[in-house]
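for the writeup, i need someone to sanity check this before i put it in the appendix. the sequnce is what the collaborator sent (i think, or maybe the updated version? ugh). structure was predicted straight from it, no edits. if anything looks off just tell me and ill rerun, i have time this weekend
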Amino acid sequence: MAKTDIGPPHYEQMLPPIIKENYGKWKYHEILKPGVLVHVSETGDKLFTVRVGSPRLVSIYFIRDLCDLADKYCDGYLRFTSRHNVEFLLGKEENVEPLLAELKEKELPVGGTGNSISNMVHTQGWVHCHTPATDASGIVKAVMDELFEYFETMKLPAKLRISLACCLNMCGAVHCSDIAILGIHRKVPTVNHESLKSSCEIPTVIASCPTAAIRPNPKLKSVEIKEERCMYCGNCYTMCPSIHIIDPENDAVSIWVGGKVSNARSAPMFSRLAVPFLPNNPPRWPEVVESVKQLVEVYAANAKKGERMGEWIERIGWEKFFEISGLDFTDKHIDDFTHAVTTFRSTTQFKW
């Protein structure tokens, strides 16, 4: 096949020599201590990995510091994980402790392996996204500051994945995380009729709505929104800036629990609503931080070893979960989506 400069380079070009030489020959891996792993090959070779927590948005100076450490200890090899951690890939065991010492000196946290809270996946938030109901980086910083001990240790019953999405388009994997923080719009978008008729294509705006909540308003040469059909996704604003969905007074935060991607022990699960409303209180979002910390501590105190959040809830029952977590069950927890009936409990097997 002819070589082109289109698309990314083949990943094989970026692999450390030890991985290329032992491709398909790895026997097992172990976690030596929080943040440090070793992979052992059939040939006897060992690959050591040191995982370091990192913000999702970083400066070039931070990246250069990481590259300097990689050049010094790992022959220049490192990788970024899907949860924004940095992993240094070492072929020499004698370099592990010096690297850990220098990371500590630079105040870079090591952890996020095993039964811990790894880095939070999150969306853009106020930094870049055009439809956020809350910030992303700010809440993540505040939450992880409070839960930092769970990143550096492995004292939870199982791994705990936390994510954040600043709106319900959920770029941040909130539908499948143990604990998810989701920004919510609560009011129908407002329409600026004067600017819409001169700057937006009305047929495109109408077609952009996934629930058919937008219809033409011939009298104003604009559109109108049916409140009972709107799901607050903001797709109309993406198509037309004259339809404003961001509302500083009414936008809020919700908490969801019980999701997971893993197919081990039990099938993958979608997360479900736990806290329907928490206020947007930057810069530290104390109500959100307190709620997430409470859920983590309740899970840590009551789940069995190896149980994910959703598995623990399914074992004890959602009624018991709301009771021991001190959360109120309200009408907001009842899904009123047209096809929600397929997700409802359909047996008499309640757990109290």
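The chain has three domains: 11-105, 121-186+248-343, 190-244. The chain has a mean pLDDT of 93.
thx in advance!!
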